Amino acid sequence: MRASLIQIAVDPDESVNSRRERAASLVREQRGADLVVLPELWPVGAFAYESFAAEAETLDGPTFRAMSEAARDAGVWLHAGSIVERAPEAVLDGAADLYNTALVISPDGALARSYRKIHRFGFDKGEATLMGAGDELATVTLPDAVLGLATCYDLRFPELFRGLLDEGAQVFVVPAGWPARRRAHWTLLAQARAVENQSYVLACSTAGTHAGVEQSGHSIVVDPWGEVLAEAGPGEEVLTVDFDLSKVETTRDQFPVLKDRLLGVTAPHR
């Protein structure tokens, strides 16, 4: 499987529309990849809280339309990172208005799956107060793999990844807007999630700055043994890596730690 992680830089002087066009162009350049991944909230910036409401869009809004066309043109599965979603149901039932929502688009341009981020960052401010929490785990079945979806701060919660494992995930895809000052945690947690679930982790962060918060970059691909297969630098970059999906089954067979789980739901031994 070939994956391309587009570590796009968020520049506060670049308009959202311009960045959409640039991201779409970068996606089109990845023809030949099986899966392309963009970071969390790249249209607006993960820490640009004051812009969330103004830049919110529906699932079929301008970011989806631009990414749908790009995925179709490139013939790739596209994890289009996440958007600030304005939920139509909020008007009807008093639910949260905004969500941090990831979009996965098939090679024919259709929305294959969306995922509302469950763990919101900020404690008593920012995303945690401005956005609703998702309440559903999300997986996507590709021709050769099952993807488990998580977003940024989710990476700190291993129980979410166990849930995705039990739904058949072999590859965790984690778009993020991770701050540079906590980059050591980013690498450590990506490797931990890979090792404990014997799965691949594809973690795609942003470069640049979000509302003055320097981003970590250093997107990373980790294999089921915890080995780093590829890692980007701090700036804008496309990280492309080929990896062997059969290593998931091989690892789980050679070191069948998952069958010894005693707490919670036990994943079937593969």
UniProtKB/TrEMBL annotation:
GO terms for molecular function: hydrolase activity. Keywords: Hydrolase. The keyword Hydrolase applies. Residues 1-245 form the CN hydrolase domain. InterPro entries: C-N_Hydrolase, C-N_Hydrolase_sf, UPF0012_CS. The keyword tRNA processing does not apply. It comes from the Bacteria. Belongs to the carbon-nitrogen hydrolase superfamily. NIT1/NIT2 family. This is Carbon-nitrogen hydrolase. It comes from Streptomyces niveus (Streptomyces spheroides).
